Sequence to fold (142 residues):
Amino acid sequence: MVAYSFKPFFAPQIETRSKTQTVRADRRRHARPGEALQLFVGMRTRHCRKLLGIDPTCLFVSPIHIQTNTLVGGIASIEIDGRVLHRDEIEVFARGDGFAPEHINGLDCGMTGKTARENMGHFWLDNHGAGSFQGVLIGWNG
Fold:
């Protein structure tokens, strides 16, 4: 079983199962398809809380490459398992990853974008800076 921690503004979307994926940097061991996942907010703090009563199952782990750029509003390109996403697909991906304006704008996270891609770009620039990010996309059952 592998555990993942999330920012508090993602918690409602995970609990309602509208967010069923996460992007993570490479590490020694990630979940594998078929394994149970434990999803938390505030892990390693006294405010730690498990988000779901029943642990979801990992469905896939795919390599992901995200290119960020301050000139294009954050997300310049996303490539999943060798396939470059089209502009419209990036918006769908960003929504699925929890950045839809209707879900997070107005929360205490500083995002006010008109699109999910814009919010995701703001988040990525703040947390990873401009440039290239390589990691994995992990999806679970909803």
